[in-house]
């Protein structure tokens, strides 16, 4: 009989590791994280919505097979394309990454605040951040900018240097001139290049990382009954070795990585790689 809380976390690729890191900080004990990285099909940001819905349904079915107690979406794109009904009708609790971030800003931002959202093309098109933030009188202006090259760059392991700085400037120079009060990193990949983004912005612009707020939501919900150290199992649909390299670079260790096969009937486990 298991005592640890089993939480499924998913993303199109490595971006969700920024959420995993915060979850491990918040739950050093009592949690078993199961992270699905769909690296074979990354990026999600520009794919047809119906294709993405199929991917997400497959991931949910996979988590059901793993017997998770809750699902944390570390993918803003996936969160934006699902209806509220789809989220609430799942058999396990679903944690949105967009909703708690919008709620925090709406309830704490000073009057007449300007909020900028940088995200994938699909997240911008669905405008879920915009629709959530418009409910609050304190937000006077909302700007959105799609940055489609960010995810492929980060997935290649390029997180700093001239190439990153050039692409960040290409997408965000005009936005930086506006000097918004807040800038939401509307994709979990973007914290990997936060330093480059930050260097372009005015000091008056506060960067908002949604990972912080989804983790707070999980913490409010979770009941921990075990004192065993928390663990992570990783499931990767693409190149396992490259994922391990990224994992070691970002989290300092690359253990408990398993490959999965993407079949016509869904997602199936294959070999385990431990080193």
Provide a concise account of the structure shown.
This protein is an alpha/beta fold and 275 residues long.
CATH class bucket of the largest domain: Alpha Beta
Task: Please state the structural category.
Answer: alpha/beta
Computed Rg: 18 Å
Give a quick account of the main beta sheet: strands, pairing sense, barrel closure: 7 strands, mixed
Distance between the termini: 28 Å
The chain-level mean pLDDT equals: 96
CATH architecture of the largest domain: 3-Layer(aba) Sandwich
Count of discrete alpha- or pi-helical segments spanning 4 or more residues: 12
**How many strands?**
11
Q: Name the overall outline.
A: globular
Q: Hey, roughly how much beta strand do the residues contain?
A: 15-25%
Unreliable stretches, pLDDT < 50, 5 or more residues? none
Level of helix content? Answer: 40-55%
The CATH topology of the largest domain is Rossmann fold
Give the neighbour order of strands across the main sheet. Answer: 4-3-1-2-9-10-11
Whole-number tally of structural domains: 2
Written overview of the protein:
The protein has 275 residues and is an alpha/beta fold. The chain folds into two domains: 5-97 and 213-273, 3-Layer(aba) Sandwich (Rossmann fold); 98-209, Rossmann fold (3-Layer(aba) Sandwich), CATH 3.40.50.1860. 42% of the residues lie in helices and 23% in strands. The protein contains twelve helices and eleven strands. The chain has helices at 17-26, 49-66, 76-81, 84-88, 98-108, 121-126, 128-133, 150-155, 162-178, 194-200, 211-221, 240-251, and strands spanning 5-11, 31-37, 70-73, 94-95, 113-119, 139-146, 182-186, 206-208, 231-236, 257-263, 266-273. The strands form two sheets. The chain has a seven-stranded mixed β-sheet, sandwiched between helices. Strand 10 (257-263) and strand 11 (266-273) form a beta hairpin. Helix 5 (98-108) crosses helix 11. It is globular. The mean pLDDT is 96.
């Amino acid at each position: 009989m298991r005592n640890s809380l089993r939480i499924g976390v998913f993303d199109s690729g490595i971006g969700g590791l920024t959420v995993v890191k915060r979850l491990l900080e918040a739950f050093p004990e009592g949690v078993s994280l199961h992270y699905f990285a769909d690296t074979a099909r990354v990026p999600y940001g520009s794919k047809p919505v119906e294709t993405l819905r199929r991917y997400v349904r497959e991931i949910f079915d996979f988590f059901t097979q793993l017997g998770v107690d809750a699902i944390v979406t570390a993918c803003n794109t996936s969160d934006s394309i699902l209806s509220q009904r789809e989220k609430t009708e799942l058999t396990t609790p679903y944690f949105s990454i967009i909703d708690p971030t919008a709620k925090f800003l709406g309830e704490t931002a000073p009057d007449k605040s300007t909020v900028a959202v940088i995200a994938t093309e699909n997240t911008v098109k669905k405008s879920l951040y915009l629709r959530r933030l418009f409910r609050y009188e304190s937000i006077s202006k909302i700007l959105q900018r799609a940055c489609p090259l960010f995810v492929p760059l980060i997935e290649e392991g390029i997180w700093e240097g001239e190439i990153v700085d050039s692409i960040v400037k290409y997408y965000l120079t005009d936005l930086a001139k506006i000097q918004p009060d807040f800038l939401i990193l509307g994709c979990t990949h973007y914290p990997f290049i936060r330093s480059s983004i930050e260097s372009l912005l005015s000091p008056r612009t506060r960067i908002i990382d949604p990972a912080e707020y989804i983790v707070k939501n999980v913490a409010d919900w979770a009941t921990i009954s075990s004192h065993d150290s928390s663990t992570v199992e990783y499931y990767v649909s693409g190149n396992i070795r490259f994922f391990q390299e990224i994992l070691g670079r970002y989290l300092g260790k690359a253990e408990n990585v398993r490959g999965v096969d993407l079949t016509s009937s869904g997602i199936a486990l294959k070999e385990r790689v431990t080193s």
